[in-house]
Amino acid sequence: MTENNIRKTATLLVCCPDRKGLVARISDFIFRHGGNILHADQHTDLEAGIFLTRIEWELDGFQIPREQICPRFQPIAGDFQMQYEIFFSDQISKVAIFVSRLPHCLQDLLLRRQAGDFRAEIALIISNHPEAAEISQSFGIRFRHFPISPENKSEQERSEIQELRSSGIELIVLARYMQVLSDPFVAEFPNRIINIHHSFLPAFVGAQPYHQAYRRGVKLIGATSHYVTSELDNGPIIEQEVIRISHRDSVEDLVRKGRDLEKLVLARAVRLHLMHRILTYHNKTVIFD
Amino acid sequence: MTENNIRKTATLLVCCPDRKGLVARISDFIFRHGGNILHADQHTDLEAGIFLTRIEWELDGFQIPREQICPRFQPIAGDFQMQYEIFFSDQISKVAIFVSRLPHCLQDLLLRRQAGDFRAEIALIISNHPEAAEISQSFGIRFRHFPISPENKSEQERSEIQELRSSGIELIVLARYMQVLSDPFVAEFPNRIINIHHSFLPAFVGAQPYHQAYRRGVKLIGATSHYVTSELDNGPIIEQEVIRISHRDSVEDLVRKGRDLEKLVLARAVRLHLMHRILTYHNKTVIFD
Amino acid sequence: MTENNIRKTATLLVCCPDRKGLVARISDFIFRHGGNILHADQHTDLEAGIFLTRIEWELDGFQIPREQICPRFQPIAGDFQMQYEIFFSDQISKVAIFVSRLPHCLQDLLLRRQAGDFRAEIALIISNHPEAAEISQSFGIRFRHFPISPENKSEQERSEIQELRSSGIELIVLARYMQVLSDPFVAEFPNRIINIHHSFLPAFVGAQPYHQAYRRGVKLIGATSHYVTSELDNGPIIEQEVIRISHRDSVEDLVRKGRDLEKLVLARAVRLHLMHRILTYHNKTVIFD
Amino acid sequence: MTENNIRKTATLLVCCPDRKGLVARISDFIFRHGGNILHADQHTDLEAGIFLTRIEWELDGFQIPREQICPRFQPIAGDFQMQYEIFFSDQISKVAIFVSRLPHCLQDLLLRRQAGDFRAEIALIISNHPEAAEISQSFGIRFRHFPISPENKSEQERSEIQELRSSGIELIVLARYMQVLSDPFVAEFPNRIINIHHSFLPAFVGAQPYHQAYRRGVKLIGATSHYVTSELDNGPIIEQEVIRISHRDSVEDLVRKGRDLEKLVLARAVRLHLMHRILTYHNKTVIFD
User: pLDDT tier at D20 (50, 70, 90 boundaries)?
Assistant: First the structure.
């Protein structure tokens, strides 16, 4: 499906206290105004008393103009104390990728974008090293170099935030970016920063997880993509994957095999986010795939 | 959750031509009569124009008595040309297991039933060999021995059908039953017979799939659970799984490793069926798990 | 292959400092005396300077009588400072299984023994609870009940050790045995106690790993089999496996899915140990499979 | 490890009838001349009576000059009727990649080469379409465009063979090359052409395997890398991998998910081949990894 003839849809994401009639009220709202529901997923956490749903319907034939949908939906949202968002399939998200020296996740995301794995405008590449400039150029993407030292970190982060804001960036992807973002930076983009950690979290938090895995003698290594929160490597997990290793594998082999995991696990998370398939609550994700 | 305090719910399975308003009409029906929806899954095959849904709601507080639910739902079903079924969570399905000489799938299902992996009454074990009598007895389950020869097959199958009908069997599980069921037998239980085939279908249809896999030199072997139809090993696939093998593995190793796959893949299919999570159309399954 | 016609072989396991000529000296020793090598695996940890090998050869035609093999091999072992062991394929190991209340791993091992997945004499089942007595009896295996309290633990463990010694037990399998063994107990059976931990170690060490996994919101859960050392859940890892979970899975679902992992991962470790395919060094395992 | 300081080793691959003394004679040959064995793997197919081994030893300290190793080993090879090859770790293989329109496998191999996943000189890219010219150029690799029609196929293949011969190509990788190579072409490069087929062979041989998989309703899709023989999609299998799909996945989703499998499975095969870890016999592979 090319971008010109993509099906025009609206997607509603809702998180609220569980109550009778939620599905009926929402689906009735869509039906009464001529919407045809394409996908509807819901999840109720019975223990926590929380209801989450993702509903996608065709805009073709829907009688409410898109700028009116939020105000018209507001009374229902108010009744049920909903947190909600509405997205339109022809709005293409702007993405920034942060990278340090290892380029494989960056290259992978750029090639996947090219192959049509997901739709996004990769508008900006930021690095604390200069090496990624060439890749950025070959894909025609703006590159900004922000070297980070303990002394200039706060200032550089403020510049980065300004850059991200002025570019209208909606999603930040840390594609093996080896700097820890400060709390103020993270607070600017809640649930909008996806990181790839090269271990099966919560095992091997922190630095050099492949070395840690080698020393412990595990038989599988993993990678984890998650939203970044103020607590290091402890945000809501989006996706994880593992691969088998053996005593024959050196640390270098773990690094090599791990690259495949990192690429896959980060790309899946980015795709799910861009398709508005992730909701979060209680430091966990609900994935409607 | 013990069987006494299991949550009382109704589950509606629907398959019909896709049309606007389906979700709204169904959820409104449930809400208007005081039902609280616990799970709602839907799938639309846009190409085929088919809509499928599974909705489960609490009976506690629902104002229609359960024997009235079908007649009261009938007008909606008629409007939308629905094929539908309604199940209640406290109705426990009666299951018959067919087995030949290899007991591992039978034992696995019996132990899973005991451990509470799924709820069912395993009411009958049928075999063309006498060996399973002892296992049946140790679990306190009625055992019937129907030896099969080319001469007596039709007659024995008629006796089996009678036995199954009189016992009120709702699901037949072929747990490494090595006889091909005749078309008349299969026609008696449409989408009610689950088989385990010890290959990754459609590879290695027919006899001795592990020998076939060994000769071909594949690097993964598989198992497939499916509903039985009149075409051998060609019914709707419910579940598949694979395991890695290497040149070090003999046919005996494949058989041994395969047993684990067979047990897992058959048990998952049985559990999904018993929880009314499988719909079929166009010789495929839709799994709402 | 039945136990009567099993191929008679010797298996040599060696761990020593790496030096030139190791493979040549060992294979020459076997060849000069008429042995036909069936399997030979080796691993060199170049960083640690350690050489490990497993060599299996046919006894049929081998000119050294089996009780003479060790003394005749001793000079080579001395030259190379080898730690080594020699096993014969027709010697069947005696195994004790420890279990608490959950029977699935115990049942699984007993059925696998019956199906011929591995060869062993399961000579003794020990539990701190009485429930496993019935299963033990139905498989014709001696059962001993050792209730454990903080007060009697040392004394009970001494009785257990005596029991294990007098029964000639060579391998102890903790099949969901929920007591921590004391250091003196563990010291009696170095690399002879296999435990199953119901998490992907080193994540979720200690109690209630499925609850920990649920709270953290991981997308895969795991199980780990390992040799028991004095440090809890930190012995050499033998095998690990994972399974995918989602937000739909409750803690009970994790427990249910985890049972399959626990059974598989423990059974593989037991089989590898009984086939003398595991060597350990530096708190890691080398698996020659 | 950079290419300059790569460890200098010799690797011997042997396939011959099984006989006593094979390991001893080979390892004695290496040891007597001062070689230190780093890796030794062997496999005996007892049923077929075939012995296969891969032995790698350090050239540093080995007393036979490398051009003399083959002649000096010849008598042993003759005694045991060995088919054998000897490779040196500092000889870098020349590789040609064939591609049609889909670039993902080509890009993946080029980036893996760059990241150091394997060592090779990718000397030539050949396509029946012009699109890959740009990628080739950006990686500085010679590109040749050979359009294929039924009329010119034989002639074009002869030109390709000439090109490959004159470039000293040792391995041909079909990276989603959608033309069937003729028997004469294949015969020129026995066990030197690796193909990626986008199904779990032997399921879905031939055209449009993802469409076939979609229609059959399988729950896992796969990819298979194999050596090319004169029988389509039937050569010795090197590697296979699968990924889970569901009823939610359209054919386009299968194609997208399959790309990841294709890249992984082809790259693993290429790496194994370049590291001389694959032997073949009876249309099967033995992988010493």
Answer: confident
Size of interface A-B (CB pairs under 8 A): 57
The predicted-structure confidence for C85-111, as pLDDT tens digits, reads as follows: 999 999 999 999 999 999 999 999 999
Q: Give, in order, the Cα–Cα distances in Å from B66 to each of B28, B69, B73.
A: 17, 5, 11
pLDDT, one tens digit per residue, over B134-188 is 999 999 999 999 999 999 999 999 999 999 999 999 999 999 999 999 999 999 9
Question: Between D117, D138, D256, which is nearest A117 by CB?
Answer: D256
pLDDT score recorded for residue A4: 52
D49 interface with C at CB cutoff 8 Å:
no
- Does domain B9-88 sit in CATH 3.30.70.260? yes
Polymer length of chain D:
289
Res. A1: pLDDT tops 60: no
Is the CB of residue B198 less than 8 Å from the CB of residue B260? no
At residue C2, the pLDDT reads: 44
From chain A residues 97-126, the ones with a CB under 8 A of any chain D CB are 104, 107, 111, 115-117
Rounded distance between C-alpha atoms, residue D38 and residue D55, angstroms: 8
> With contact defined as beta carbons under 8 Å apart, do C94 and C123 qualify?
yes
Residue C74 burial (CB count, 10 A): 12
Name the active-site residue from A18, A233, A249, A260. A233
DSSP reduced 3-state for A280:
strand
Distance CA D268, CA D27 (A): 29
Q: What is the ipTM of this complex?
A: 0.94
Please answer whether residues B193 and B161 qualify as being in contact, where contact means their C-beta atoms are separated by less than 8 angstroms: no
- Cβ of D248 within 8 Å of Cβ of A111? The answer is no
Residue-wise pLDDT for D151-194, tens only, equals 999 999 999 999 999 999 999 999 999 999 999 999 999 999 99
Tens digit of pLDDT for each residue in D132-161? 999 999 999 999 999 999 999 999 999 999
Contacts of A138 in chain D (CB under 8 A): 138
Does the domain formed by B94-287 have CATH 1.10.10.60? no
Q: Count interface pairs A-C at CB distance under 8 A.
A: 75
Question: Partners for B (CB, 8 Å, 3+ pairs)?
Answer: A, C, D
- Predicted TM-score (pTM) of this structure: 0.96
- pLDDT, average across residues D182-210: 96
Show me where the domains of chain D are located: 9-88, 94-287
CA atoms within 13 A on the CB side of A3: 12
Binding partners of D (≥3 Cβ pairs within 8 A): A, B, C
Q: What is the DSSP string of D6-62?
A: PPPEEEEEEEEE--TTHHHHHHHHHHHTT-EEEEEEEEEETTTTEEEEEEEEESTT-
CA distance C213 to C229: 24
d(CA A113, CA D107): 14
Residues 6+ positions from C27 with CB-CB distance below 8 Å: C37, C40, C55, D23, D24, D27, D28
In eight-state DSSP terms, residue A35 is -
Alpha-carbon span C217 to A187, nearest angstrom: 21
| D121-127/D94-99 β-pairing | parallel
Same fold yes or no, D9-88 and D94-287: no
Residues of B whose CB is below 8 A from D287: 246-247
Q: What percent of chain B has pLDDT over 90?
A: 92
